[in-house]
Amino acid sequence: MTPAELQALNQQVLWAAFGVAFAFGALVQRTGFCTMGAVSDAVAMGEYTRLRQWALAAAVATFGFAALAAGGILLPPQTLYASTRWLWLSALFGGALFGFGMVLSSGCVSKTLVRVGGGSLKSLVVVLVAAIAAFATLRGLTAVWRVNTVDRVAVDFGANADLATLLARATGMGSTGAALAGAALVGGALLAFALATREARRPHNLLAGAGVGALVLAMWWVTGSLGHLAEHPETLEEAWLATNSRRAEGLSFVSPTAFALDWLIFFSDASKRLTVGIVSVLGVVAGSAVVALARRRFRWEGFANTPDLGHHLAGGVFMGIGGVTALGCSIGQGVTGLSTLSLTSLVAAAAMVSGAVAGVKYQMWRLERDTG
């Protein structure tokens, strides 16, 4: 492959990733898909429709990832979520902190980016704060705290720490069979919950859940297949083009916001390059803006008062720190990571839901206190 061909392929990966993210932003703006809203609906009103949308997205992504892996299109041990270490405490602490933060911020990072596209200035502030907190937790002060505390607590499996590996060890199944069995187990349970009611099977809800799941799979294909080189012409090593981790990555939005902010601030630095994560952030905002403008839903929005500002700032900090510590957001771990059957992702997703439940109850307590 010539340098020109390599550059052209890199551009294809970036444009494809932008397209997937654009579609994600447009879909979420159109359907109202929201993990925080799903938990809030369930806790405050006993309404589970949006939670079933999330379950459907995770089910589609889980089944699809297993199919891609079985077909040799993706190799699970070579994805961002693959590790021999089960970082259960990092996932538990970070996930709970992220979940609580996304309630204070009125939505997770992906939903906040969608709201930015719809004209929300307070969501823009939240994104900037989350990006700063995330960058500090990747490379700054809170990164030192993270590495020296929760990241030290882990279980080393000596092989990929995922459900498929556990099944293979327990049953003697081959890796492919165990991966398919694990996907059937987790994906099947999620799918059964997702489609349990007539309301959940309405076209709008199916579009929201299945659409998000399909876009997660599309991003897996972009980074894991389109951008995969068995041998990079310059390094002669296996490579995944335009990814920050230099491995196959999926849709995720906490660390990418930090990378995007870093890229913008140091734009003149020749070493800074566009990556899948950075263009994904831009794509979500653009896709949301197009739909909001087309539907005449674009509205400027600011903070209601000082307490509203304070809660959103705190939420942004919690999401930035928690998302990096848990290795992903409610989409990055709750759908993308979960699709790989990573044990860390399973803990992180559960912790995010638990943190969000605590956040909703805190908000309900505040409302009762202020109106009582």
UniProtKB/TrEMBL annotation:
Q: Which GO terms describe its cellular component?
A: plasma membrane
Keyword annotations: Cell inner membrane, Cell membrane, Membrane, Transmembrane, Transmembrane helix, Transport
- Main location group: membrane
Subcellular location as annotated: Cell inner membrane
Q: Where are the transmembrane segments?
A: 12-33, 54-74, 86-109, 121-141, 173-194, 206-223, 274-293, 313-335, 341-360
Q: Does the keyword Cell membrane apply?
A: yes
Listed Pfam families: Sulf_transp
Could you tell me the membrane topology recorded for this protein? Multi-pass membrane protein
Which family, according to UniProt? Belongs to the TsuA/YedE (TC 9.B.102) family.
Q: What is this protein called?
A: YeeE/YedE family protein
Organism the protein comes from: Ramlibacter cellulosilyticus
